[in-house]
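User: Quick sanity check before I run a bigger batch. Here is a single chain. Can you write out its predicted 3D structure?
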Amino acid sequence: MTIKAFLFDHDGTLVDSESTHLALWRKTLEPFNVTISNDDYLSFFLGVPTEKTAEILCKKHNLPLSSESLVCSKVNHTRHFLTHSYFPKMSGAGELLIECASRLPVALVSGSQRFCIDATLAGHQWGSLFAYIVTGDDVLNNKPHPDSYLKALDLLGVRGNEAITIEDTESGVKASTSAGIRTVAIRNQYSLSHDFSKADVEVANLAEAKAWIRTQLSS
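Assistant: Done. Predicted structure follows.
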């Protein structure tokens, strides 16, 4: 099947944001004398949308506030961080995006809020590379549900087997493959324990992802 579009995840795939998100979650939980260990974050919260993470934390620690209020606090901390900074790009991200965008339409499909994506696009000057952007704000059911990927496919006007997705978490791979999209899973330092069995191929970094994508375009 001919490839007609590329879809990219954001956090952990294009930008190195996970350590920052963990630090911001810890700051959010400080008033309740609760913290998240590195292992717990990697095992249970990596790639999980903010809303779901808040639900889990509120229930697990019996926090004296609603999950919606916890989300608001985390979002406020994140907004403050992004007013003076933005997430650093992953090695090879800019080069891969430019190459993909020069060949076919590219969509960004993220579980994050729109303001996080806007900060990345402005900071790295990537806005012109994406034909469409779908964030967690744009769908009712966030990853690992396929809604965001199905919406992106609809916007691009392509079928799942006509596209390739690059993801870095089990949650993202499940969302993409559930939408019928060929998926490249990047197993990095954060996702060592994640189940990538549903992915079409597993790689260690974006350079390896680029090499595999080239084979698909030439086949």
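The domain at 5-16+87-218 is CATH 3.40.50.1000 (Rossmann fold).

User: Great, the batch can go ahead then.
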